[in-house]
Specification:
By secondary structure, the chain is α/β, with parallel strands linked by helices. Strands 1-4-3-2-5-6-8-7 form an 8-stranded mixed β-sheet, sandwiched between helices. Helix 4 links the parallel strand 3 and strand 4. The model has no long low-confidence stretch (mean pLDDT about 95). InterPro entries: SAM-dependent_MTases_sf, tRNA_(Gua-N-7)_MeTrfase_Trmb, tRNA_methyltr_TrmB_bact. Catalyzes the formation of N(7)-methylguanine at position 46 (m7G46) in tRNA. Its EC number is 2.1.1.33.
């Protein structure tokens, strides 16, 4: 590991808005109260990377709490540092494997989940690691409130098609969908937030897919 990564790992351990590994289990069922000191809705960004979406959503919606989740501390460092420097109080980051979500969040605790440009895990042998696969969707449904919403943005057409297939197989209700977000009438101040990777994809003239759904049956 390079010196810069080691520095970021050491620094992120001192940030008050970063909770790591088993420490997050103590927050289960009381994230709003214990981390943010309020009773506001809690929104997750899964595989948040540098946390651009998490931080910018928090700027737009100060009446909600946002938690970015990723396992790589050197990535979380950027979003957490930005939030601290800019005094954004409704942001936190949790460094865990997403597979352990149920150990850190209680049933019906989450109001909304964002998945933005995750690793599509295209190989058939890695299907179980896809963040919109059946086992992950089951976890999300448990922690999500009945009226909660799921959002996916991805440049990967295959992963998007796979996600739509899973939504169809579970007979879930879709609210919005497009295979070309920036040439659709769906784009707004929320969907126009761009991550580091999204900017690269757009520079290469790549289409951006988006779907919003819930666990309500059609």
């Amino acid at each position: 590991m390079g010196k810069d990564k080691l520095r970021k790992f050491a620094e992120v351990a001192t940030f008050e808005n970063v909770i790591q590994l088993d420490a997050g289990k103590e927050y289960k069922g009381k994230w709003a109260e214990k981390q943010f000191g309020n009773a506001n809705p809690v929104v997750l960004e899964l595989a948040c990377g540098k946390g651009e979406y998490t931080v910018n959503l928090a700027r737009l919606f100060p009446e909600k709490n946002f938690i970015g989740i990723d396992f790589k501390g050197n990535r979380i460092w950027r979003g957490a540092k930005t939030a601290l420097e800019d005094g954004i109080k409704n942001v936190a980051f949790l460094r865990i494997q997403i597979e352990t979500l149920l150990e850190h969040f209680a049933e019906n605790e989450i109001d909304e989940i964002w998945i933005t440009f995750p690793d599509p895990q295209p190989q058939d042998s890695r299907e179980k690691k896809r963040l919109t696969g059946p086992k992950f969707l089951d976890r999300y449904q448990i922690v999500m409130k009945p009226e909660g919403m799921m959002n996916l943005k991805t440049d990967n057409d295959g992963f998007y098609a796979y996600t739509l297939e899973q939504i169809e197989l579970q007979n879930l209700k879709k609210y919005k969908e497009t295979t070309d977000l920036y040439h659709s009438d769906l784009v707004d101040n929320v969907l126009s937030i761009k991550t580091y990777y999204e900017k690269k994809y757009l520079a290469d003239d790549k289409n951006i897919n988006y779907v919003k759904w819930s666990f309500e049956k059609r």
